[in-house]
Amino acid sequence: MRVSFDLDEVLFVDPATHKTELPLRFPLNRIYTERLRLGTPELVKALQKLGYEVWVYTSSYRSEEYIRRLFRHYGVHFDGIINAQRHLREVQRDHKTILPQKMPNHYRISLHVDDESVICSLGRQYGFQTYQLDAQDDEWAEKIIRRAEEIKELERRITQAQTGGRS
Fold first, then answer.
1. Model confidence pTM above 0.70
2. What is the pLDDT of residues 77-133, one digit of tens each?
3. Is residue 107 within a helix (H) or strand (E), and if so which, with residue range?
4. What is the C-alpha to C-alpha distance for residues 132 and 58, in angstroms, rounded to an integer?
5. Which end of the chain, N or C, is surrounded by fewer C-beta atoms within 10 Å?
6. Rounded CA gap, 2 and 23, in Å?
């Protein structure tokens, strides 16, 4: 099962409004100015330890390499990264109608964590599960793990029903 996270206002937050990880040391803090929401490295590692693939799905134009390197300094490895360029190339492609800026189900992502209510509401329309996260919340990691476990169990039951109990 895959879980994806938006970057801006979800994993990258403003230290004036959210608790954050310590900034990287000089000179890295000049290259990577974003601040991580407190608990991000531990959450990603905990999800991976539970058997989840953890992805980034962002509408930002930061390069995949920039994202990968920034998180590597925090000891975090993502299983996949989708940025705006990749989304446009692989999802929007030559569709005449404009698709939502994120389509997690295109990448078989079971749960997408985002701050935008528009993205979360589009999940119902386009068939993907979301968790909306924006404000400071000391229990955010536990809530996301709980939601991922609920979806995993739901997917297990659906699979079981489709196979007639053989899984």
1. yes
2. 999 999 999 999 999 888 777 777 898 999 999 999 999 998 998 888 888 999 999
3. none
4. 14
5. C
6. 28
Q: Is 157 exposed, middle or buried (0-12, 13-18, 19+ CB in 10 A)?
A: exposed
Q: Is the pLDDT of residue 5 over 70?
A: yes
Residue found by looking up tokens 């329309």 in the block: 125
User: Using CB atoms within 10 A of its CB, is residue 149 exposed (0-12), middle (13-18) or buried (19+)?
Assistant: middle
Distance CA 23, CA 121 (A): 33
Q: Which helix (H) or strand (E) covers residue 140, if one does?
A: helix 140-162
Q: Which two tokens stand for residue 39?
A: 């608990």
Alpha-carbon gap, residue 51 to 149, rounded angstroms: 11
- Strands across the sheet containing 80-82: 80-82, 53-57, 2-5, 111-114, 129-132
